[in-house]
Amino acid sequence: STGFDYRAGVLHAEEVPLPTIASAVGTPTYVYCANTIRHRFHQLDQAFHGVPHHIHFAVKANSNLSILSLLRSLGAGVDIVSGGELYRALAAGFHGRDVVFSGVGKTVHEIAQALNAGVQLINIESEAELVTVNAVAERLGVIAPIAIRVNPEVTVDTPHAYIKTGEKGQKFGIPRDDVSRLVACLPDLPNVQLRGLGMHLGSQIGNADPLRDALPRLLSALEQARAAGQPIAFLDVGGGLSVPYEAHETEADIDDYARIVRAAALDTGLTLLLEPGRFLVAEAGVLLTEVLYRKHAAGKDFVVTDAGMNDLIRPALYQAYHAIDPVVITDGAVVADIVGPICESGDFFAKDRAVPDVQAGALLAVRTAGAYGFSMASNYNSRARPAEVLVDGEQFAVVGVRESQEDLVRLERAPLHWRTA
Ligand code: LLP
């Protein structure tokens, strides 16, 4: 279960009725179920039982401190892509050794921040970055533990091109044919130590084929590094596990995924690193929103909600499908566009969707919004970002306070101190 179920016709998050949260906190609000996150973590952890492994949650999927703390308490580490995410991870109680640092554009400042924190691995994505990491480490008088992120250049099938990363010609990783050249540079770079090989194929990957194609390529890169005498300890297979968004979609076969990865990893004797984001948190969240108006125009029906694309951008950015359920079961059906208040025609949650005939004042739950929901929210149209609530059994707590209108202008000021060029 996702933690969201109807009882007596009312959608609950675990034991808490969603209308209770709406009255206490208002809307729009993200609601997360702690037990669903616990369940997903244990499911993945169990699937790799018997293989040395570590699950590094991709912070970008949901960076709320309480979600990070929850995952830390379960034994997770983190995969970060910025100094800001490192700051959050440390604030949530993670140690440097729990952290893997990915990303194609790390700044000198971020690299220094990561080395000072003592991160487990910095994933290298270019030769120029390798040289920079070595220079920063030298300045700080440390040896930087690094991994090479290999681009295995396989064909990846995802619902949208924007979430593929492991194909040829993309900005991510070192093309597999260039790995040996990078390894050959290492003897001249005494302040880095190659500790791992990694990859990340993309997100919401529909089947195991890309993984089957990519693992041998990652292993061949590993052989090259080992042949050069590098002390490799980690094999990082990235994230990308899919979750069902539509009713007809089935859950990802975790055991199948684990079987393929385990088979490849066991012989290497390395510690396996996993970087799931979506899988751990997507289904555990909904965006709770209120219907502001019903509208009929040009032969079409519209349901206008108080949440918009600034709160949840996935439909606008990726034409992503999110199921939308009435919080109180409602009779009648209508085919409508469910749209937000923002001045863009891309501001919709669903198009021509058959939905219950909800009226103004009704609550809706936009499902599967726990990953890449709040973390991608913005202030567009000067809208304060929504509140976030964590539910655990019969209890709920505000874990992200709704922004205020003062917050919107807090960092802005009149140009009192002009500087002369
Ligand atoms: N590791 C690396 C290096 C990544 O770039 C990503 C995601 C992950 C792990 C986690 O992937 P996951 O397990 O969540 O699929 N905003 C998009 C998804 C972008 C994913 C970017 N990288 C969306 O809303 O669908």
UniProtKB/TrEMBL annotation:
Residues reported to bind substrate: R278, R314, Y318, E344, Y372
Residue numbers bearing the N6-(pyridoxal phosphate)lysine modification: K60
Pfam family, one: Orn_Arg_deC_N
The protein's Enzyme Commission number: 4.1.1.20
UniProt keyword annotations, A-Z: Amino-acid biosynthesis, Decarboxylase, Lyase, Lysine biosynthesis, Pyridoxal phosphate
Catalytic activity: meso-2,6-diaminopimelate + H(+) = L-lysine + CO2
Pathway: Amino-acid biosynthesis; L-lysine biosynthesis via DAP pathway; L-lysine from DL-2,6-diaminopimelate: step 1/1
InterPro entries: Ala_racemase/Decarboxylase_C (IPR009006), DAP_deCOOHase_LysA (IPR002986), De-COase2_CS (IPR022657), De-COase2_N (IPR022644), De-COase2_pyr-phos_BS (IPR022653), Orn/DAP/Arg_de-COase (IPR000183), PLP-binding_barrel (IPR029066)
GO molecular function, one term: diaminopimelate decarboxylase activity
Highest taxon above the source species: Bacteria
Entry cofactors: pyridoxal 5'-phosphate
Domain Orn/DAP/Arg decarboxylase 2 N-terminal as annotated: residue spans: 36-282
Record-annotated active site: C343
Key word Lyase present: yes
Binding residues for pyridoxal 5'-phosphate: G240, E275, P276, G277, R278, Y372
One record GO biological process: lysine biosynthetic process via diaminopimelate
Role played: Specifically catalyzes the decarboxylation of meso-diaminopimelate (meso-DAP) to L-lysine.
Similarity comment text for this entry: Belongs to the Orn/Lys/Arg decarboxylase class-II family. LysA subfamily.
Subunit field text: Homodimer.
Protein name: Diaminopimelate decarboxylase
